[in-house]
Amino acid sequence: MATLITEPAVRFAPAGETAEEPRLEVGKRDPYQIALEASALALGLLPPEQASLRNQFERAITTVVLATAAGLARRSRPDKRNYYTVARASAAECTAIIHLVQRWGLAPPEDCQRARNAYLRVVQMLTNLALACV
Length: 134
Description:
Blueprint: H1 31-43, H2 51-73, H3 77-103, H4 109-132
Helix pairs in contact: 1-2, 1-4, 2-3, 3-4
């Protein structure tokens, strides 16, 4: 008889917190945690009046976090590579949107630069992870 699994096998814990359950971790500052931090920086950049761009931005931000988490949770190299590639593309999209936000004067340049740097770091980490799965 098959056993029904009711709880996820892996839990994500915020950086710095200890968890009794296992958690996915690439290093002290893994791409999942940096993507979460970048999302917090980025969401404040666009005013609600920019509904169309904000919607696109929110979808890209969400995809970065979710696809990164999915990649970290996968076991097969091709699956991992696929999710990391999707997350990387969405992180690159986020950097482009942040560039537009700055060009259009919708947010302070310093805030845009911080958010863009965070996403560029995520892109670098995801690139390395995807290449390691070849």
